[in-house]
């Protein structure tokens, strides 16, 4: 029997939000475009419109939080199964909580999110709107398409030193309704795009109690 083993490096989980959670999150995120919810001072994004999400009802918030916690539990359990417990031994899946607030980034052309990491132990990013024109730039824009790394509007995580037969970048073209979970201290960044449109993502961080929260996100 032959097997391929990938024992090193952080785990990234990719899944899809339910339709109900996606629609509730999108509606509440859009309704949170308000000056008093401006969250830019806590965020690294070079992005003009970033807001705390103010949920209209407790039901909406609970539905979203419950679904996100299920994803986080799934993530921790998968890490345990792969014996990544040293990294996560303070995390008990049943004790996970979301650090308030959940926030939304309305990213426009020419904006970007520089390399950064998050507070807490686990982070997630969710995509509410990814116009296809952004992805098209990677195929047709003359200064992008011929690059060996076309990355307009893409997210990239980075970890470790380059070596043969090893990856240090993980780059994704996000799709609407995607959710990615990753260790909160895993560095990542988002590349700008040129098309006059808007790319909308939501993010939040998870902790287990008794874990120290950093002062910035
Ligand atoms: Fe981030």
Order of helices and strands: EHEHHEEEHEEEEE
Distance from N terminus to C terminus (CA atoms, Å) equals: 45 Å
How much is the average pLDDT? 92
Supply the helix-strand structural class: alpha+beta
Q: What strand order characterises the main sheet?
A: 1-8-5-10-3-2
Please provide the count of β strands: 10
- Major sheet attributes: 6 strands, antiparallel
CATH topology: Jelly Rolls
Identify low-pLDDT runs.
Answer: none
Report the helical percentage: 10-25%
Give the overall form: globular
- What Rg do the Cα atoms give? 18 Å
Number of helical stretches of at least 4 residues: 4
Bound molecules: fe (ii) ion
Explain the layout of strands and helices.
Elements: E1 13-16, H1 19-30, E2 49-52, H2 58-81, H3 85-88, E3 97-108, E4 113-116, E5 122-129, H4 132-140, E6 155-158, E7 169-172, E8 178-183, E9 188-190, E10 198-207
Antiparallel strand pairs: 1-8, 2-3, 3-10, 4-9, 5-8, 5-10, 6-7, 6-9
Helix pairs in contact: 1-2
The structure holds fe (ii) ion.
Fe (ii) ion is lined by residues 116, 118, 188, 203.
């Amino acid at each position: 029997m032959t097997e391929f083993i990938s024992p090193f490096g952080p785990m990234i989980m990719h899944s899809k939000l339910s339709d109900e959670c996606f629609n509730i999150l999108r509606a509440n995120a859009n309704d949170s475009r308000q000056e008093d919810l401006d969250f830019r001072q806590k965020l690294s994004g070079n992005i003009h419109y970033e807001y705390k999400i103010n949920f209209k009802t407790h039901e909406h918030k609970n539905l979203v939080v419950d679904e996100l916690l299920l994803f986080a539990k799934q993530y921790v359990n998968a890490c345990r199964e792969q014996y990544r417990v040293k990294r996560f031994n303070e995390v008990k899946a049943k004790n996970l909580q979301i650090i308030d607030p959940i926030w939304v980034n309305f990213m426009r052309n020419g904006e970007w999110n520089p390399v950064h990491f998050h507070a807490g132990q686990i982070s997630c990013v969710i995509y509410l709107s990814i116009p296809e024109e952004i992805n098209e730039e990677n195929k047709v824009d003359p200064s992008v398409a011929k690059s060996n790394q076309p990355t307009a509007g893409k997210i990239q995580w980075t970890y470790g030193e380059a070596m043969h037969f090893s990856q240090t970048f993980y780059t994704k073209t996000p799709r609407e309704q995607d959710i990615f979970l990753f260790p909160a201290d895993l560095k990542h960044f988002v590349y700008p795009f040129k098309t006059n449109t808007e790319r909308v993502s939501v993010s939040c961080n998870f902790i287990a109690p008794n874990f120290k929260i950093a002062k910035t996100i």
